[in-house]
Amino acid sequence: MNVKTQEIVGHGQGDIIKIAALSGAAFVFSAGYAGGCPSMLNTALAAVYPEYAAAVFLSSVVYYIFVGGFASGVIQLLGIMTVAVLSTAFFRGSKKDSPLLTSALTIMVLLLFSIAVSAVTYSAPETVIGRGIASLIAGGFVYAYKSLQLENRMTHMIPIGGVNGVMTAVVYTAAVSSLASVSLGVLNLGRTVGCAVLLCIARRYRMTGGAGVGALTAFAVFIGASPLAGNTLLLATSGLICGAFAELGVLAVALSFISVCAVGLATIGSGADGWHMFFDVMVGSLAFAAVPQGLMRRAMSLLFGGVSASDNVGRATASRLGFVSASLGEIRSQLALVTAAMDRKASERKLSETVFDNMCRSCELRCICHKDPVRSSQHFNELEQIAMQFNGVSDSDVKSSFRDCRFPELIADSFNYAYKNYLDSRAARLHITELRTLISEQLCSMEEILSDLSGRIGRIRSVDRELSERVGGYLSRTGYRNARASVYLDDAGFRHVEIFISGEYISDRMELSLAVSDIVDCMFDLPVISKADKLTRILLTEQPLYELSLGSFCASSTDNGYSGDTFDTVALSSCESCALLSDGMGTGKRAKLDSMFAVSLASKLLSSGVSMRSSLRLINTVLKVKGWEESFATLDMLRFDLCAGTAELLKAGAAPTYLYRDGVLKPFGGQAFPAGILDHCSPDEFMIKLYDGDVLLMISDGVSDEKVRAAFSELGEGRPDPKAFAQTLGELAMQTEIKAHRDDITIAVFAVNYRVNKQKSDI
Q1: What is the mean pLDDT of residues 671-697?
Q2: Percent above pLDDT 70 for the chain
Q3: Do 447 and 325 touch, CB atoms closer than 8 A?
Q4: Closest CA to 580 of 644, 637, 658, 649
Q5: How far is CA 668 from CA 578, 627, 697, 707, in A?
Q6: Of 263, 448, 458, 499, which residue is most buried, by most CB within 10 angstroms?
Q7: Can you tell me the distance from the alpha carbon of 475 to that of 714, in angstroms, rounded to the nearest whole number?
């Protein structure tokens, strides 16, 4: 059986399970009451899942015909058919398929049929009011459930917090209120479910969660079966107390809950219903204890991934990094203002003015040499020009301008001394200006790096503390006792595990990936391991939607084997990877040194979480101050996000990058200056959305545009093999170029493929 067949079978099994679950829920809801009237939550199920309305309708018909009486379900059955038809015809798959519109449709349909049935048959006023209340409860259930469903589609989790917490409470209250009116012998279904849910929440949220769910359960029971609400209020107190035993495990939570309920029922003398409630508590506790821990962890991760203390710390850290980044930006702006003000004040004094003040102003014969001030000023300006042009003046230059001067040697020495001071002062000012520019550039780089880190932390949607502790515990058991692990969900809905250990990780990477996948209940790719000093970072990422195939070719322009091009790939995670290509100035060893330096520094910065733009800014600064000799290199960076299906390009003096899609070739970039020439390097930047079958081509300037287009034209609309195509294009560029004018050649071909066996469900 191939992969596609397996997927069809998997989807078929999923549909069967969903149909069975919805049919059972519709049957139970048909037996429930809300506001003293039959529950209408089965109609709400048809509004939420119109594609399964037939199963909901048939299950409800079975109940009303064989158990509850057909007359009691006329409104609900008519509502199921009408809502399903209208939703499928007008809302399904369109922008109108929103929680608010679907909820409004459900309420309007149910109220319309309630009024019609009340008008045709005699109904007591309390019955009419009860039908209205049941319609509103069904509409509220639809709005809350579809809101949570939409959240789950986008993030693959339903974090209970803020608005989501309110929506979850509405769904829980509506469901339990309907179940509370259903009794199976001595067992009340609503209270039993409420007890099991209470214990789950109490184990996660301790006392606060247990008390809150207990109060919600009592309120829901009051709506569905008000005579039972008095005893049910005891659940709030029991949930508060049993939450204190959450650290001791499942058994301790269940036993403490049962004990508190038993003592409370015995104390208040609850009558016959007290025994029924105690039976509900026992069954609910047993159900809680019987749930497999793997299923429990999966449900907890789905519901509570975004409401841990570490999540709040992450948000605060992101905000603080952003604040520090903004502060550095203000300091840089103030430094620029001070520099501009100092440059305006530092007006250079003329050499002639300095010499006149030092020598001529106090001379007794000044009236002879300077009897004509205009001619005297012209002569001094001529001497100053001579000094600037020939790096000094001589005695004869002074005598030719001032024939009556008695001290031409002193005037010449004064000019030369003033000119030397002028050169020293100018060099000092240039040096200070360069230092200010360098400091400003470094502040700007720090500002961008902090902003990058803030953005990365801000993209963490939620952190699962329990799973993080379990992964850390596994590493401790395998010998890494100082390991710190974090399991989090990003804003695209993909799970990541980040681990930091002191020293080196020497265990098997495959074993780690399988163990963490089992703990988190999610399939991870092999970990990406990076080191900095004595600290090791291990990053595991959920298997991405796309995968890459790489083919490369490299050739030197000379016979000595030294190519001035350097190409490298950096795996940041299984979702993120970067390709780096640099072409050094000229050819040979010197060009190779510059390009290797640029690629090596970029690799380290990108692996540390620095963005491509910030990395380029730092590399540009380092190349400018690397030595007195001119040193620059092109830099071509291509970042793939295989989870989101995007590619980012950043090009500084690099040759164009080509996108080949459906037989069409499109170039990107090729206009910006290389790094290391200007104080500020402004790169070309592009963002590309990736699709299955795309091909991206990175080249150095040794490969001409004509050769690229000629190689792709031979493919037609076919999909090239990356390795074979890189070799073919490289040989074509070498054969057709004149060897005397041939440059170093580097080619990297990336083929993008969609992983058909990796599809995220949109429950």
Answers
A1: 80
A2: 77
A3: yes
A4: 637
A5: 17, 32, 10, 16
A6: 499
A7: 53
Q: Which residues are within 8 A (CB) of 88 and not within 5 positions of it... i.e. 6 or more apart?
A: 50, 51, 53
DSSP secondary structure letter of residue 484 = E
Sign of the torsion formed by the C-alpha atoms of 63, 66, 72 and 75: positive
Q: Which of 70-79, 595-604, 695-704, 715-724 has the lowest mean pLDDT?
A: 715-724
DSSP sequence for 665-678: EEEE---SPPBTSS
Strands 37-38 and 33-34, sheet pairing? antiparallel
Can you read off the two tokens belonging to residue 663?
Answer: 């037989």
* Residue given tokens 């309907």 in the structure block: 178
Q: Reply yes or no on whether the pLDDT at 93 is more than 70.
A: no
Residue 672 · residue 682 · CB < 8 Å? yes
The reported pLDDT for the residue numbered 698 is: 92
Phi-psi region of 758 (alpha: psi -120 to 50; beta: other; left: phi over 0): beta
Binned at pLDDT 50, 70 and 90, residue 659 comes out as very high
Specify the amino acid at residue 184: L
Q: Is the pLDDT of residue 309 over 50?
A: no
Cβ-proximal residues to 726 (8 Å cutoff; 6+ apart), any chain: 551, 552, 553, 747, 748, 749
What is d(CA 288, CA 203) in angstroms, rounded to the nearest whole number? 11
Contacts of 262 by beta carbon, 8 Å cutoff, 6+ apart: 278, 281
Length of the chain: 763
Asked if 242 contacts 200 with a C-beta cutoff of 8 angstroms, the reply is no
Beta bridge partner(s), residue 650: 637, 685
**What is the gyration radius of the CA atoms in the chain, in angstroms?**
39
Helix axes 163-179, 41-48, angle to 10 degrees: 130
pLDDT at 617: 80
- pLDDT at site 6: 37
For the chain, percent helix, then strand, then coil, each to nearest 5?
A: 60, 15, 25
Provide CB contacts within 8 A for 527, sequence distance 6+: 499, 509, 512, 513, 538, 539, 540
What distance in Å separates the CA atoms of residue 321 and residue 547, rounded to the nearest whole number? Answer: 33
State the angle between helix axes of 189-224 and 293-304 in degrees (0 to 180), rounded to the nearest 10.
Answer: 30
Averaged pLDDT, 632-637? 84
* Residue labelled with tokens 């000092």: 428
Most confident of 71-75, 172-176, 307-311, 445-449: 172-176
Asked if 22 contacts 49 with a C-beta cutoff of 8 angstroms, the reply is yes
| CA triple 425-427-432, angle to 5 deg | 95
Interior/surface letters 258-282, b for 16+ CB within 10 angstroms, e for the rest:
bebbeebbeeeebeebbebbbbbbb
**Maximum CA pair distance of the chain?**
134
Share the mean pLDDT of the chain. 78
Burial state string for 226-246 with b = 16 or more CB within 10 A and e = fewer than 16? eebbbbbbbbbbbbbbbbebb
The residue among 710, 728, 717, 713 whose CA lies nearest residue 694 is 717
Contact assessment for residue 64 and residue 73, using Cβ atoms and an 8 Å cutoff: yes
CB of 651 within 8 A of CB of 672? yes
Whose CA is closest to 310, among 471, 462, 99? 462
DSSP secondary structure letters along 39-70? --HHHHHHHH-GGGHHHHHHHHHHHIIIII-G
Burial class (CB in 10 A: 0-12, 13-18, 19+), 480: buried
In Å, what is the CA distance from 266 to each residue of 21, 190, 275, 279, 282? 38, 22, 10, 14, 15
Q: Which amino acid, 613?
A: R
Sign of CA dihedral 468, 470, 473, 478: negative
Residue recorded with tokens 């009024």: 115
Q: What is the 3-state secondary structure (H, E, C) of 723-743?
A: HHHHHHHHHHHHHHCCHHHCC
CA atoms within 13 A on the CB side of 387: 26
Residues 6+ apart with CB under 8 A from 91: 97, 101, 102, 105
